[in-house]
Amino acid sequence: MPNDWYIINIGQIGYYRVHYVDNNWELLIDELLKNYRSIPDSARPQIIGDLFHLANHGNVSFTTFLNLTKYLSQETQYVPWTTARRALLYLDRMLLLDENYGGYQAYVRLLVNAAVRDVDWITMREDRNEEKHIPPGLRSVVYCTAIRFGGQAEWKFLRSQYNVNETEDVEKENILTGLSCSRDVWTMKLYFDWIKQDKQYWSAIPEFAVSPIGNRMLWDHVHEAVKSLKTGMENSTRSPTDIDEFTKEVIQSLSNPYYSLNNRNDGEKILRTEADWLQLPQNHTLKGELKNLLTTSKRNLKWLDTHLQTIVQWLKENVPHTEQGV
């Protein structure tokens, strides 16, 4: 019947994706919104996963997938949420450096709001040091929030705690992560200069790359380093292997698919860096690493060109008080 939903490959027994070319996607979404328990627990993760991959590859619109995710505000089972989490996290990372990211964050908060309220947030004291009142499991979140909404005084205080006697390695990582949460350009510039000084701070580079401000600073560093190397080689003042270890670390961090350039407005940085990269010798140390970085970044920008406007328009229409610009 044209108005009866159906499911193929229940339980994902077959290793393939399912795409419904009729109106079955809409029927399944309507059913999930009305009574999601009428669809078997084993089928809901499959529906989420199949529809996300189809949308991500352009076989269906992201509008359809996002309409499906509305039902997640009711979902209570672990496996469907695990599948949904992977899809939502992918979108989170792709939108992270875009100006429309706030609208997406607001939507995800709506989805998890009920589940968060049901959690027992009573925390057990995990640290015997009475001077520390923040449970260890929450410190990275607390530090990041304090730095994001604080000023330079808070940032400098947290940095001062890094070398306090008996600071554990996990705590040091929490501090480095928290310091990267600043939204102040001057503070992030101070942080960038600080982490360059000593290799023990370089573990902060991936966290730095997630920050919209930090990501652009890393790209500027790579561009200037490659440009300087190219100029030095032209003047015979630098050898093909003359590249500092810090720049290598930066390139490797930015080459992570989710940390590379994701902002369409910064696409010119790719073109400028690529122009200098093309002039490096084929056997240069950075030739392969830069190729991976540029390839991944251009792929991410293509994804944004294909999907961003659709996603932002959907957020405007479905998330209260979302005022975003494409």
UniProtKB/TrEMBL annotation:
The record's annotation in Pfam families points to: ERAP1_C
Q: Which PANTHER family match?
A: PROTEASE M1 ZINC METALLOPROTEASE (PTHR11533), THYROTROPIN-RELEASING HORMONE-DEGRADING ECTOENZYME (PTHR11533:SF294)
This entry's Gene Ontology molecular function terms read:
metalloaminopeptidase activity; peptide binding; zinc ion binding
Q: Which InterPro entries match?
A: ERAP1-like_C_dom, Peptidase_M1_aminopeptidases
Protein name stated in the entry = ERAP1-like C-terminal domain-containing protein
**This protein's superkingdom?**
Eukaryota
A single Gene Ontology biological process assigned to it is: peptide catabolic process
Q: Which residues cross the membrane?
A: none
Lineage, top ranks: Eukaryota, Metazoa, Spiralia, Lophotrochozoa, Platyhelminthes
Q: One GO cellular component term, please give it.
A: cytoplasm
- Family to which this protein belongs: Belongs to the peptidase M1 family.
According to the entry, every stretch annotated as the ERAP1-like C-terminal domain falls at: 5-128, 131-253
